[in-house]
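Students often ask why inverse folding is considered easier than folding. One informal answer: many sequences map to the same fold, so there is more than one right answer. In these notes we will look at a single instance of the problem. The structure comes first.
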């Protein structure tokens, strides 16, 4: 990896880490739960021109399920103690886009996308780059309080095999959920 690109990515990671979250209060402390489910965004008709990202969503959900299952939480189709919401932001020198299908309604994904855009373009690096940020929120399903928010940013690698892509997503999710403390209720 070129030193300029490496230093740019390190700068982006520091900037993103230094940014505060959107004005949503994270409760903190250990999470008391036995089960979890993902945000149910309902069946949306996908326009014919849209990218089909279901394989990415499946891989992200498998990575999150792997981590939460290792902490003793069982995935259920709906009605779990926790609701897992996630947002994928992909950007380059010129623009960013977010995949918020599983981030839920009424949540400020645009503010998180703006922070990622600012972080991606902060170094003024003239070399082309493409980066992705994964944001994972754990929400109490009864009170709807945000219990945990984590994120990580990685360079986007083109032409990876599905296995290599799954490994990179699992590594990113491992980093996000590494400090999560879960206590049985």
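Output (designed amino acids):
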């Amino acid at each position: 990896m070129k030193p300029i690109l490496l230093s740019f990515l390190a700068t982006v990671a520091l900037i993103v880490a230094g940014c505060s979250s959107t004005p949503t209060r994270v409760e903190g402390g250990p999470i008391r739960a036995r089960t979890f489910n993902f945000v149910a965004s309902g069946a949306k008709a996908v326009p014919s021109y849209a990218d089909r990202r279901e394989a990415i969503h499946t891989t992200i959900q498998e990575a999150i399920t792997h981590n939460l299952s290792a902490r003793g939480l069982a995935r259920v189709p709906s009605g779990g103690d926790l609701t897992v919401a996630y947002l994928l932001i992909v950007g380059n020198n010129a623009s960013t886009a977010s995949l918020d299908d599983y981030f839920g309604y009424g949540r400020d994904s645009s503010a998180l996308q703006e922070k990622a855009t600012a972080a991606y373009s902060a170094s003024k690096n003239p070399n082309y780059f493409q980066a992705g940020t994964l944001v994972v929120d754990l929400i109490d399903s009864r009170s709807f309080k945000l219990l945990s928010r984590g994120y990580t940013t990685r360079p986007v690698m083109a032409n990876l095999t599905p296995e290599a892509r799954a490994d990179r997503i699992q590594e990113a999710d491992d980093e996000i959920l590494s400090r999560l403390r879960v206590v049985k209720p």
